[in-house]
Design a protein that fits this description.
six-stranded mixed β-sheet; 3 helices; about 120 residues; 6 strands; alpha+beta; Type II toxin-antitoxin system RelE/ParE family toxin; about 35% strand; HigB-like
């Protein structure tokens, strides 16, 4: 079973986390970070909700491929992966420490794309 958990909502868009079979990998990841890193991630959520995907700050929110983005938190070298749906919804899927090498990024991107397809198929988004 898949569902969305709303994390932040604003005039520009909604930021949600994807829960799969009762487990929310992105929230579990963020909650396991130091407080300062958590604050940085949640501040980026608030900026996204206010400014939307047009947030032109690649140090915080970077386009990777297609509808795949990463939310970055540099104090702890953290990456939270997400996808943009219909220009109004950012869905966080999972997080990791900064991946090493291009092959690692490719795996993370493919995971996001797979989860995006699953969410569309199950009419979650």
């Amino acid at each position: 079973m898949m569902r969305l958990l709303e994390l932040e909502s604003g005039p520009a868009l909604r930021v949600c986390a994807l829960e799969l079979d009762g487990r929310c990998a992105s929230l579990e990841f963020v909650r396991g970070l130091p407080v300062r890193a958590q604050q940085g991630i949640f501040a980026t959520f608030a900026l996204l909700a206010k400014c939307g995907w047009r947030l032109r700050n690649e140090t915080r929110f970077k386009h990777l491929r297609e509808d795949v983005y990463e939310i970055k938190e540099y104090s702890s070298n953290v990456r939270l992966f997400c996808f943009l749906h219909a220009g109004r919804l950012v869905v966080c899927t999972h997080g990791t420490r900064k991946p090493g090498g291009r092959g690692r990024y490719a795996r993370e991107i493919e995971k996001v794309l797979r989860l995006h397809r699953m969410a569309e198929e199950q009419a979650v988004i």
